[in-house]
Amino acid sequence: LAWMPKPFGSLKKSKYSATRRLHLKSKLLKKAASMLAAEIEDKKHEKERVVNECFPPLKLSGLAVQELQDLCKELHRKIDVVDEARYEVEVKVARNNQEIQTLNGKIVDLKGVKRPSLKRVKKTTDDMLGAFTDTTKHMKADFKVNLKTVKKEEDKREEVTDWRKNVEAMSGMEGRKKLFNAGQ
Question: Which UniProt keywords apply (predicted)?
């Protein structure tokens, strides 16, 4: 047996003890958390720097009304330019997302649908015999027996009579009284 190689995945003793690995893992997590916090802080400072570069603080003290109105108009023009650029970027992003979805669909079509491996199901002899006999007809018959029956009402047909007699019968107060009683 000495000539046989060790099986793949055999258990071998690790270089570090469990407490040492746990300690190293906690140190790595602390370092990653501090690096993440520093990266967030750097992004915040970068954003502030870019905003201050592009849009210097406004000096409104000592400006006349006309100058303030001109400043507002200029700011509105800049806002319109930024909104147009933002809209164009949103359209590009939407178009790219749609293209990504279509390409993903094509990839799935090319790969084909992966069929899962089916598990073998053990059947009892009763199940096997039941599959060969035609018990489904009996079950359908039982199902139909349990259903409630609904009786169809026949349409009430009014007798066709001479219309002249009907007009004479409905004329006057007696006819109105018959219509009133029929409505209730």
Answer: Actin-binding, Muscle protein
